[in-house]
Amino acid sequence: MDIPLWQKISLRVQQALFDVKQQQAFLEDIASLVEDGVPLKQALETCVKVNQGAEQALAKAMLEKIAQGDHVAEAMKGWYPPAIVEIIRAGEEGGILAQTLHAATASLTKRESAFSALFNMFVYPVTVLFMALGVSIFINHSIFDSFRAITPVAHWPEDAQTLAGIANFIESWWWVLLLTIGILIFLFVRILRDYVGDIRPWLDKLPIWSLYRQLNAARFMETLGLLIANGLILKRGIKNFTIPR
Q1: Any residues with CB less than 8 A from the CB of 245 and at least 6 apart, and which?
Q2: Segment 148-176, tens digit of pLDDT
Q3: In terms of CB atoms within 10 Å, which of 54, 188, 236, 238 comes out highest?
Q4: Is 9 helix (H, G, I), strand (E, B) or coil?
């Protein structure tokens, strides 16, 4: 039976708002119960009873997959990154679900740390850029307005004319500037995360790309080590990191 459109929209919103901390807490709760000997189905039923919102919806979806005889990892698509879903799938197939749930939690922690480090690198230059734009607007109104009353803009020094033009543009088209910056950041993140073409080795030599590569390499090795240490064979462990995005 087809799901109504409003339910699909509601589900997408819940998935979008299901942040890393909630993802980690949910996995930790399930892992603790399973590790203590509680069957997965019963652990999920408990989560349905004690949780609300996104956690409850996710637990219900996982219970539906169990009822259908499918892997619970299938229900986690859209809620978790693909690599995390495949780690949990491997745990189900290998009979080490509790251990792989803990490994997935650790992987999420490393993933969050990597993105936090990248975010912090952007904070300073973006802050300086917006401060500079704000100062240019302040100068345009507090100083240049007085100059305009005395001397036509065409007679100003070239640098002053340029600054006044930039300030006027920002005031009139600030929304275009914000939209452009947002699009550039979006494209940068997508390229940083997903692009694997011929020039990727060259990009990985640049400061931000190289940091991202090092952080992801460290997270990959640590997660793979956790999987192998908890009984997952090497071939299957590597397979979980080579799924198509």
Answers
A1: 82, 194
A2: 888 888 888 888 888 888 888 888 888 88
A3: 54
A4: helix
Provide mean pLDDT across the span 44-73: 87
Quickly count: other Cβ atoms within 10 Å of residue 74's Cβ. 16
Q: Please answer whether residues 54 and 18 qualify as being in contact, where contact means their C-beta atoms are separated by less than 8 angstroms.
A: yes
Q: Which two tokens stand for residue 142?
A: 């507090």
**DSSP single-letter state for residue 154:** G
Q: What is the DSSP string of 70-136?
A: --GGGGGBTTB-HHHHHHHHHHHHHT-HHHHHHHHHHHHHHHHHHHHHHHHHHHHHHHHHHHHHHHH
At a CB cut-off of 8 Å and minimum separation 6, what does 120 contact? none
Q: Do 160 and 194 touch, CB atoms closer than 8 A?
A: no
Phi, psi of 101, rounded to the nearest 5 degrees: -65, -40
